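#lab-general

N.A. 3:47 PM
ok so I finally got the sequence cleaned up, no stray characters, all 107 residues accounted for. can someone with queue access submit it? mine expired

B.Y. 3:52 PM
send it over

N.A. 3:53 PM
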Amino acid sequence: MQEFTDLLKLLAILCVPAATLAVFIPLGRALARRVESRVEGQTVDELIRGLAEARNTLADVRLAVDTLASEVERQGEAFRHASKLLAQGRTGSPVPESKSFGTITPH
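B.Y. 4:20 PM
back already:
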């Protein structure tokens, strides 16, 4: 029985890397072919223009992420402030309490 489990362990040790290579090598080749086909036939100026567009897009994404990060930080600080007020027993509500129905106010 011990020999059988040892054989299974050995097969697992050999088959997992082989299966991994069998999957990822064709995927890597396909990716390389796709990249080569996109670059093939383009002039250097076209490639530089494409890189400049990618750089501009990356700058836009960076700006959007920075904006999102500042908004998340602002929301977090508002939540911490509200939690602090609730822990102190105050609501800090800016809305005044409503008057009872039928109250006469002087003019």
